[in-house]
Amino acid sequence: MTKSAIIGVSGGRARSLAEAYRHVTRGRLVSVSSRRRDKLEEFGAAFDVPARHTDYREMFEQEKPDLVHVNTPPSVRLEIFEAAEEAGVPGVLVEKPLAIQGEDYLAIQAFSRSARVKIAVNHQLHFHPRRNMLQRQVRDGAIGNLRFIEASAGMNLAYQGTHALQAISAFNPDAVPIDVFGQVSGAEGLQETPRHHYAPDQCTAAISYDNGLSALLRCGGLAPRVVDGPVNVHKRIAVYGDKGFLHWTMHGWESRIDGKYACGVHAYAEEDILGQAAMTEAMIDWIEDDGAIHPLNIGSALSDFGVILGIYESALNREVVRLPSKPPPGLVEKLRNALS
Ligand SMILES: NC(=O)c1ccc[n+]([C@@H]2O[C@H](COP(=O)([O-])OP(=O)(O)OC[C@H]3O[C@@H](n4cnc5c(N)ncnc54)[C@H](OP(=O)(O)O)[C@@H]3O)[C@@H](O)[C@H]2O)c1
Question: Is 71 touching ligand 1 by the criterion CB < 6 Å?
Answer without folding.
Answer: yes
